[in-house]
Amino acid sequence: MKKYTEMTKEELEALRSELNAKYKEYQAKDLKLNMARGKPCVEQLDLSMGMMDVLAGGCDLTCDDGTDCRNYGVLDGIPEAKELLADMMEVPVDNIIIYGNSSLNIMYDTIARSMTHGVMGSTPWSKLDKVKFLCPVPGYDRHFKITEYFGIEMINVPMTPEGPDMDMVEKLVSEDESIKGIWCVPKYSNPQGYSYSDLTVRRFARLEPAAKDFRIYWDNAYTVHHLYDDKQDNLVEILAECKRAGNPDMVYKFASTSKISFPGSGIAALASSLNNLEDITKQLTVQTIGHDKVNQLRHVRYFRDIHGIIEHMRKHADILRPKFEAVLDILEKELGGLGIGEWTKPKGGYFISFDSLDGCAKDIVARCKKAGVIMTGAGATYPYGKDPKDSNIRIAPSYPSLADLITATELFALCVKLSSINKLLSAKE
Amino acid sequence: MKKYTEMTKEELEALRSELNAKYKEYQAKDLKLNMARGKPCVEQLDLSMGMMDVLAGGCDLTCDDGTDCRNYGVLDGIPEAKELLADMMEVPVDNIIIYGNSSLNIMYDTIARSMTHGVMGSTPWSKLDKVKFLCPVPGYDRHFKITEYFGIEMINVPMTPEGPDMDMVEKLVSEDESIKGIWCVPKYSNPQGYSYSDLTVRRFARLEPAAKDFRIYWDNAYTVHHLYDDKQDNLVEILAECKRAGNPDMVYKFASTSKISFPGSGIAALASSLNNLEDITKQLTVQTIGHDKVNQLRHVRYFRDIHGIIEHMRKHADILRPKFEAVLDILEKELGGLGIGEWTKPKGGYFISFDSLDGCAKDIVARCKKAGVIMTGAGATYPYGKDPKDSNIRIAPSYPSLADLITATELFALCVKLSSINKLLSAKE
What we know:
- Helices cover 41% and strands 14% of the residues of chain A.
- By secondary structure, chain A is α/β, with parallel strands linked by helices.
- Chain A has an eight-stranded mixed β-sheet, sandwiched between helices.
């Protein structure tokens, strides 16, 4: 296949006519497909239906230590749920607090509390002139929305297949006291599916921040979300690594069962040092009497233990793997060697990251939309929704059926071609 | 029965010897009873066990509008849950947002948001020199803990059987721009079981606050929590009343099913004007992807509609009524006419409020504790835990068995007598 970048004006124009005709065919199909969000598909949701049965039939809702899960009480989670999620998050059971249904909400609360009450005795951020966060890009839009909502200035840090550019992270964090945090999705990152290398994690743990209240916001959303049994990314456990490095309080770790059981009806947790948890508990005890213990018990009774979660995740993988592979196959077949796009090939998580020629992402997403396929908005993977190169697009293969996904990806590839041709042609004018 | 206040020193001393002997008998019993918190008892929790069955057996978890409750999405609650709670809260369905498991958490979030982002465009409270709240006293300790946590100055407003002292509320609110809110439990109040009179609610709706961001925090926790079918308090609906009075945005209304289904595993809601909800949604959309829709569906499938809730609350009442009556009977029999205490006689809610002679409450609670009966800490019903007269004690009859409750209340009455005698004797010295 000849590279588009090596084609003459005439070749490109001829190709455009041909592709435009194809595009019109797609438009005529009246498609309504969505590859925008990392939503599990119906078959994945069906995997957890047994969860609705485990507490039925008048069964005893008492946990091992005698607590009646139906009544008030227990601020940090029932012991068996703490064990389950501690095993999943690879931390000691004492380092965990079980929250409600949403890890995003825990992250929001963490920032909100830092704004009004500081971090372990530091000045509340709302009293400071300037608060900044480092944002590895492209990244997760909902992280960036939280920091934006609180008026925190966001600084882009480029991502590499090994994780964020650590030279830049180390330099900025050590020089600027107003930098209070960094957003990380360290395993099967959103949107690339990259996992931080051992060295990257070790460099994180050894950061020497100018701000005492600097924290790493370690959103380990995809910790058990492998696509393959034999090819799995491994991530160095950050809490232990920070402790070894003499920075035990430097990290907040977040996770949930949203993409294990039911999104929106799972359980979420925070893991951190005892000092941080003590600080957080001062808030938590004012904020609520306790989270949903019945749902905690439901998860424990259904999954039993971490092995149960791992076995369950195999079933998710069996559904997701063909979808990821279909997208990657089509991208390779349609776009491979054309020099108009690059994409990641994740071994887990929920996304594929696509980079088009500069200045084409918005146009590609708009073209897809006009033909009935919704992609994540171009720019969404950057703070303030501003992708400086206008090149990154997040692909979420999980939700559509395999047949729909194939159609949508073929259309996507077509739109990439059309946008690229226009871009290349306009450069020749 | 002769009033203690009319007894001679010798009579009091003789009585004290007699009562001290009785107290020692209680101490010998090695009691472990708890009348501290408004926790439902096991029999009440058993009422809702059917809730664990309604979604079992692979039943369809789709709601009326086609939303799959198992997946992400829906920020403000599924329509059928909104209808159920709107009916319970006596507001239009458009004026409600369904949250997670805790109305206390909604209140916390409401204050937290006002601190960082203000109210409908007002200056964030964290930027102001001084923020104050009015606190009808005695009141609910967890309300006061929230405002205390955010450094908000609390001003005591005396409660009457008609509600807060409205002369004082009107005056303070209209004069002082730093007063941003008032905590209210308007129906079967915590701890008195008072319900605000029609006139009180009307005066609330007609307040003319100096602060544009003043809001009434209307915690209607006990809206359907009657003890009797024939004797029920009625409360004028505040949202509609504020609208009629030209103050549509002045109130946030909170409720939950915590004491209807399962405490900690219920669903909570906020009701307010569309303007307020729009303001709040700006936060909510950043804070979470959505609350637990499966649990919302569970509640709807179990209760079906407001009539289902009312029927269910009859069963709660059948369990609670004998307990309240037992406590009131013992108080009347043991303390009636002695001039050493007054108490409320609620027709609903979870508490009885007891007022001892000034300066006796802490001593009474300590005496109870030494004999194995835990009461709500004296002072807890006041901001900062400071009851200026040291006289108020909250009695929570729900949790202990009837037999235990009788023992605990008899001991309580005995401790009231002993403390009062000591108080009266020390005044004679």
